[in-house]
Amino acid sequence: MAFNTISKLSATILVLSLLSTPLLTNACGSCTPPPKPCPTPAPPPPPKEKCPKDTLKLGVCADVLGLGNVVVGSPVSSKCCALLDGLVDLEAALCLCTAIKANVLGNNLDVPVALSWILSACQKSIPPGFQC
Fold it and tell me: Read out DSSP for the chain?
């Protein structure tokens, strides 16, 4: 009879353990934390504006300011404006600004005046808010 009691007790423990296993393993639902959402990458910085032309060639624009050699019979702005042709106002302003700051057009220039003078000679204008 002792064997029968042990057998019943073992069977009861086995049944209880089988019934309680799903309760214990699912007690917290899924015990792993939910995945963290991936952070959205920061947008790339805007590209720096730069002159699409060779700035050294803009030395011919010194003629527009009366600082270079003027050839008789040709408009002083023709070579300079030919270099700026096809550029939008912002690109032309950037190119001239770079040339002025690099002293390609001459030393000690009043930057806003020189920039305005050359751009207007080439039928271009300084974009609103543009700072050289």
Answer: -HHHHHHHHHHHHHHHHHHHHHHHHTTTSS-SPPPPPPPPPPPPPPPPP--SS-GGGGGGGGGTTT-SPPPTTS-TTHHHHHHHTT--HHHHHHHHHHHHHTTSS-SS--HHHHHHHHHHHTT--PPTT---
pTM for the model stands at 0.56
Give the whole-angstrom CA distance, residue 63 versus residue 79. Answer: 9
* Residues in the chain, overall count: 132
Q: CA-CA distance, 81 to 119, in Å (whole number)? A: 8
Q: Which segments of the chain have a pLDDT < 50?
A: 69-74
Rounded (5°) CA angle 42-132-89: 85
Distances in whole angstroms, Cα of residue 128 to Cα of each of 26, 28, 125: 66, 63, 9
